[in-house]
């Protein structure tokens, strides 16, 4: 068996873990809203039309914050269409996804759904076809108490209390030519700064996210970031990052190394933010909102909805196998390794559309394989993210060079005494005998080693969950070899995602 060793010391930390790293994203796209979180008439629907079976899965997933309503959708969205009596709301063309938007679900429903789901709302404004006025009116509607045109309208819409939305995205992917209202970095940077300043006059307690590039593959990256920050550095709190990783059956080794590309992207954007900071002689540190990330299969299936102008077409309903789950786990590790700067992250998306939760219209709801690493990190990555020194085997990839077989992150929570190690094994064939050298936390008691893996050799698309077999891929506990961990070893199965949990005998520190 191949051998590896990790060394960590609870005193050596990347930073505090913001629980919002486990955020998610609900867009008016395909069946994420309609037929996903919202399906009036479904046997599981509550009086608001929210699917209870989906809510149960969302609560179990532990999502702390949800971005809404887009995505590309927001760039031609009129938020006013989605408030007030549902029967009076207009049906519109959604130009982003070539779909019909009924507006039966809007801001009020979203805020209410978040309350029931136990998540904080994070709202994106339209800076594609609209600007400062519409953003301020939306903010006044959402957050101002009463006594003005827009706040009184909210009260009239049976929401006496303000929605108190704290986190706002200033548009979406405006660097992209596909975006309705696409802009140059200069145009966007000025608009973001002006919008942010006006919004802060209405509510001084906001966290504002400016758009970074739609991906590191964009020809304008990273100049977009540098120019945008030059224009709005003082006015915003976060810069966004987006990244989707495409499975490649011809080169699984490269796909499994996606987290290294994510590390590189985050570190380059941190560098660009710090360059902007130095140019401004500013004391303010720009944080990052990785507010769209996931594994996304090639996108041909869009053409189906594209041609037909339907309500809630089946778009991007990816089914994820065990390799996808291992990649998602390692992407979460990458976010944890950068916890000092990435304070918000939203997996795109929550239900049906490139999502960890899948539903059938009128039918059941089930967990994709990728659900499990997301849930593990939401539940167990608490406190501080630890620096982990890894010595272990590597594999060669023709395009990328030497790749570590294991991908590791760890957290230590002073309040509970919990210490958790997250390990992805990228090897398709090899188990790894992993030695754990954990320092600075006193004696540890093992709690659980859970493993998400499949038996037998990897064949793309086979180890998946479906409505018929929702439990085909689920985590299982494996026994620890020894009581203490300081000199302990664990066996990491091939192509697996592992959560190794301990608690300090010292208890809360
Ligand atoms: O998440 C799906 C889409 O991907 C979003 O609408 C857009 O922002 C990104 O290109």
* Count of runs of 4 or more consecutive helical residues: 11
Give start-end ranges of low-pLDDT stretches. none
CATH architecture of the largest domain: Alpha-Beta Barrel
Q: Strand arrangement, largest sheet? A: 21-20-23-18-17-14-1-19-22
> Helicity level, as a percent range?
25-40%
Q: Can you tell me the number of structural domains? A: 2
- Strand count, sense and closure of the main sheet? 9 strands, mixed
CATH superfamily of the largest domain: Glycosidases
Morphology call: globular
Report the span from N to C terminus.
37 Å
Q: Would you give the CATH topology of the largest domain?
A: TIM Barrel
Secondary structure category = alpha/beta
How would you portray this structure in words?
With 509 residues, the chain is an alpha/beta fold. It has 2 domains: 2-11 and 385-504, Immunoglobulin-like (Sandwich); 19-78 and 85-103 and 123-380, TIM Barrel. It is 25% helix and 27% strand. It is built from 11 helices and 23 strands. The protein has helices at 52-61, 107-117, 132-143, 149-156, 185-202, 223-232, 252-256, 258-280, 302-306, 322-337, 371-380; strands at 2-16, 23-25, 65-68, 92-94, 99-101, 120-125, 167-170, 207-210, 238-245, 287-295, 342-348, 357-359, 365-367, 384-391, 394-397, 401-404, 406-413, 418-425, 432-439, 444-452, 476-478, 488-492, 496-504. The strands form 5 sheets. Strands 21-20-23-18-17-14-1-19-22 form a 9-stranded mixed beta sheet, covered by helices on one side. β4 and β5 (99-101) form a beta hairpin. α3 crosses α4 and α5 (185-202) runs parallel beside α6 (223-232). The longest helix is centred in the middle third of the chain and has 23 residues, at 258-280. The protein is globular, with a radius of gyration of 23 Å. It starts with a strand and ends in a 5-residue tail after the last strand. The relative contact order is 0.16. The model has no long low-confidence stretch (mean pLDDT 95).
């Amino acid at each position: 068996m191949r051998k590896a060793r990790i060394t960590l010391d609870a005193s050596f930390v990347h930073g505090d873990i913001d629980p919002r790293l486990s955020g998610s994203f609900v867009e008016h796209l395909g069946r994420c809203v309609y037929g996903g979180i919202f399906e009036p008439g479904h046997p599981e629907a509550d009086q608001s039309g929210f699917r209870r079976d989906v809510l149960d899965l969302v609560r179990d997933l532990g999502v702390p914050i949800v971005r809404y309503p887009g995505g590309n959708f927001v760039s031609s969205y009129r938020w006013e269409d989605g408030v007030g009596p549902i029967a009076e709301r207009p049906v519109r063309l959604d130009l982003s996804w070539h779909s019909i938007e009924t507006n039966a679900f809007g801001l009020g429903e979203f805020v209410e759904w978040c309350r029931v789901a136990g998540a904080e709302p994070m709202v994106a404004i339209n800076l594609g076809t609209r600007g400062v006025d519409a953003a301020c009116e939306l903010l006044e509607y959402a957050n101002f108490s009463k006594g003005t045109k827009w706040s009184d309208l909210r009260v009239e819409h049976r929401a006496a209390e303000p929605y108190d939305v704290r986190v706002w995205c200033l548009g979406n992917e405006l660097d992209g030519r596909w975006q309705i209202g696409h802009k140059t970095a200069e145009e966007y940077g000025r608009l973001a700064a002006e919008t942010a300043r006006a919004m802060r006059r209405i509510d001084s307690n906001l966290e504002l996210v400016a758009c970074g590039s739609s991906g590191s593959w964009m020809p304008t990256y990273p100049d977009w970031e540098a120019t945008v920050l030059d224009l709005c550095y003082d006015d915003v709190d976060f810069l966004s990052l987006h990244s989707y990783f495409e499975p490649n059956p011809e080169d699984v080794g490269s796909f499994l190394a996606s987290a290294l590309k994510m590390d590189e992207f985050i570190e380059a954007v941190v560098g660009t933010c710090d360059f902007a900071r130095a140019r401004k002689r500013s004391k303010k540190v720009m944080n990052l909102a990785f507010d769209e990330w996931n594994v996304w299969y090639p996108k041909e299936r869009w053409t189906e909805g594209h041609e037909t102008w339907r309500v809630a077409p089946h778009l991007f309903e990816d089914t994820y196998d065990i390799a996808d789950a291992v990649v998602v786990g390692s992407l979460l590790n990458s976010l944890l390794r950068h916890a000092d700067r990435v304070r918000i992250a939203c997996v795109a998306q929550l239900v049906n559309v490139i999502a960890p939760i899948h539903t059938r219209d009128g039918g059941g709801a089930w967990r994709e394989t990728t659900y499990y690493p997301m849930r593990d990190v939401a539940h167990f990555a608490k406190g501080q993210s630890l620096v982990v020194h890894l010595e272990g085997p590597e594999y060669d990839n023709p395009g990328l060079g030497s790749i570590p077989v294991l991908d590791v992150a760890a957290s230590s929570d002073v309040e509970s005494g919990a210490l958790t190690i997250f390990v992805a094994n990228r090897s398709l064939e090899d188990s790894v005998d992993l030695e754990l050298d954990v320092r600075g936390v006193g004696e540890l008691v093992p709690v659980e080693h859970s493993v998400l893996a499949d038996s037998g050799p990897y064949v793309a698309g086979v180890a998946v969950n479906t409505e018929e077999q929702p439990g085909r891929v689920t985590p299982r506990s494996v026994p620890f070899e020894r009581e203490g961990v300081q000199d302990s070893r664990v066996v990491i199965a091939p192509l697996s995602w592992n959560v190794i949990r301990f608690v300090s005998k010292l208890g809360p520190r």
